[in-house]
Write a structure and sequence with these properties.
The chain is of the alpha/beta class. It contains 21 helices and eleven strands.
Length: 639
């Protein structure tokens, strides 16, 4: 699963699909700059990372994300404090009212207390509802902006910047970890702020009635609100830091398992994968259990602190009544006020755990936001050339972020109108890196890359992808009809143009046999189609986009030999007369291309026509002999 620039692809399926239509109707705005109302991750430092990275830790950046919403969060703090204070007031006034009523005074003496009891009871509910409304509105607005910022960053760095990130882990970061950021405000900062405000008020009120009881309440609240959270937090720290990665690991295994169930079943590896997924689930359960144990410890210590505080306050109150410093009616207030005041701090042990959990989730989210952009767009893009030809690459070297050596080095290539070149080599030889450089998903470290005589680095990435399109091995099909999947390439395409693209991809006869024809649903990820049909539909979409230069990246990958060879022959036939760069490790049918370039460890080790390379001693001849031997063995085994 990958995210690519929306103006250049749809869902990582066909790079340049949307741009194919745009090339006919005028330039598209760059999504990363103009789309939506949410802000970008922020000002950029010279190395391309958001400036916020230098301002503190992950939690500091979460606080900075509040921006103009700080006023709403301040209002939420005030409303939350009023709700908690109403609970304390309700308990204190109720205690006084019951004690005073036991003396059977005239009812008018009790009217103020009765009214206050009603006011505090109603106020507690109203203020709590208003606090929830205001705080959640502010936090959900922040999350919306954060999601847009994350997707915009993904748009900048995908696909080359996400090579080391598994699909399931990325999904966990985008959903669970971003969602977890709301807990910083709702379950940590606001509860802690309310505890400080209400606790201080309760201590002051109790100390006004009886200084000794105020001192006892202060000690109890400090222990329950500071010491207990520190103890439970220390107990849960390791578990909370492990929770987000473990959740990501489980998501990765589940996604991999669901996405490859059929292949795993055929290979006999399904049982082992299921067991590994269960082990990841058990690991997450163990981590959650340790967190629950810490929560239970904090709750028990808080309850113990509350009970001891009430007992000590009652003892001090009884002594004060005996000494004549406190009347008997007020004794109930001194005893019951601490009981209500502890409501503000009993949730702090769990709040500390949420803080630790949010910190780790924020670190994982900001790892995505801080990932270096593999492509740096020009501030003032150059005027696009009138034609893509010649497309020239000279001395090109490219390297992925964090790598110590070039994935592609000293590469030369010239594409003219109608010329077809095949780039072959083993996995890891730099073939896909070449495709990403040509589509400006990855900047060249050295060398030149020009399109129609204009430096590609001086052009906007979307402009480059109007000239160069990609049909990838993992082309994505949406859960829609054949027609709608094709129209992604060109929304204004006519029925005849759709049928012509299908005919060139050798799919039209099959589509005509379907009950609903072009309106037949292909299923999720093209589940209703065979592997060959999915690739042919992706090829038809690429042909419909009509790119000046078409890059085919391992189009026959993951197919059986017969289907792969048939597809290769058909795509070579369909691209006849089109400027095409075919990236493959399979050599069958390559005698139809104009030139073959053999890559080895990122460098060109051989180039020439198929006949020349097949006849001469060298890497391609060795690859050809190994392929023929493997095909012969496969034929014998199948027979």
């Amino acid at each position: 699963w990958r995210v690519e620039p929306a103006a250049a692809s749809v869902g990582g399926a066909l790079v340049g699909t949307g741009a194919g239509a745009a090339a006919r109707s005028g330039p598209l705005p760059a999504p990363s700059r103009n789309r939506g109302s949410a802000p970008d991750p922020g000002p950029q430092t010279p190395d391309g990372l958001p400036e916020l990275a230098a301002r503190g830790g992950a939690l500091g950046r979460v606080r900075s994300a509040a921006g103009e919403l700080r006023g709403r969060l301040g209002l939420a703090l005030l409303l939350g404090s009023l709700a908690a204070a109403s609970a304390v007031g309700l308990m204190a006034v109720s205690g006084w009212l019951i004690s005073r009523a036991s003396e059977q005074p005239p009812v008018l003496y009790l009217m103020v207390a009765v009214t206050a009891t009603r006011a505090f009871g109603i106020g507690r509910a109203v203020f709590r509802y208003a606090e929830r409304l205001v705080s959640h509105d502010a936090v959900l607005r922040m999350l919306a902006e954060m999601r847009v910022a994350v997707y915009r960053r993904l748009e900048r760095i995908a696909p080359a910047g996400l090579r080391q990130t598994r699909r399931g882990d990325l999904l966990s970061r985008l959903v669970a970890d971003v969602d977890a950021l709301q807990d910083y405000w709702l379950r940590w900062l606001l509860p802690a702020g309310v505890a400080v405000v209400v606790g201080a008020g309760a201590v002051g009120f109790t100390a006004w009635l009886l200084p000794e009881a105020g001192a006892v309440l202060a000690v109890g609240l400090l222990f329950a609100g500071v010491a207990v959270p520190l103890i439970s937090g220390a107990f849960a720290r390791r578990a909370e830091r492990q929770l987000a990665p473990a959740r990501g690991a489980l998501a990765t295994r589940v996604v991999d398992l669901l996405g490859g169930t059929a292949e795993l079943a055929v290979a006999g590896a399904l049982k082992g994968r299921v067991e590994r997924t269960r082990e990841a689930d058990r690991q997450l359960t163990r981590i959650a259990s340790r967190g629950a144990a810490a929560t239970a410890l904090g709750g028990g210590l808080s309850a113990l602190a509350c009970g001891l505080t009430v007992v000590c306050a009652a003892f001090a109150g009884v002594q004060a009544v005996r000494d004549g410093r406190l009347d008997g009616v007020s004794l109930a207030v001194v005893v019951l006020t601490p009981l209500a005041a502890f409501e503000a701090v009993t949730g702090l042990p769990l709040a500390v755990q949420y803080r630790q959990r949010v910190k780790r989730s924020a670190e994982r989210v900001y790892e995505v936001l801080d990932a270096p952009a593999p492509v740096h767009e020009p501030e003032r893009p150059a005027t696009p050339p009138a034609t893509a030809f010649p497309l020239e690459v000279r001395g090109l070297s490219a390297r992925y972020a964090g790598q110590q050596r070039d994935a592609l080095g000293g590469f030369d290539l010239t594409l003219t109108a109608g010329r077809r070149i095949a780039v072959v080599g083993t996995s890891g030889s730099g073939k896909t890196t070449l495709a990403q450089v040509l589509l400006r998903f990855l900047d060249a470290r050295e060398g030149t890359y020009t399109i129609g005589g204009v430096d590609a680095a001086a052009l906007d990435g979307d402009t480059v992808r109007r000239f160069v399109g990609l049909c990838a091995q993992d082309a994505h099909l949406f859960d829609s009809s054949v027609r709608e999947n094709l129209r992604l390439a060109r929304t204004e395409a006519t029925e005849d143009e759709l049928r012509q693209a299908l005919a060139e991809a050798r799919l039209l006869r099959w589509v005509d046999t379907l009950p609903d024809g072009l309106d037949t649903l292909v299923g999720e990820h093209g589940a209703q189609l065979s592997g060959g049909q999915r690739q042919r539909l992706a090829l038809a979409r690429a042909l419909l986009a009509d790119f000046p230069v078409l890059v085919l990246d391992e189009p026959a990958e993951h197919l059986d030999l017969a289907t792969a060879d048939a597809l290769t022959a058909d795509l070579l036939r369909a691209t006849e007369g089109r400027t095409t760069l075919l990236i493959t490790h399979r050599l069958q049918g390559l005698d139809a291309v104009d030139e073959i370039v053999v890559l080895g460890e990122g460098r060109t080790v051989q180039r020439g026509s198929y006949a020349e390379l097949a006849a001469a001693e060298g890497p391609l001849r060795g690859m050809l002999e190994r392929e023929r031997a493997a095909d012969l063995l496969s034929t014998r085994l199948s027979s």
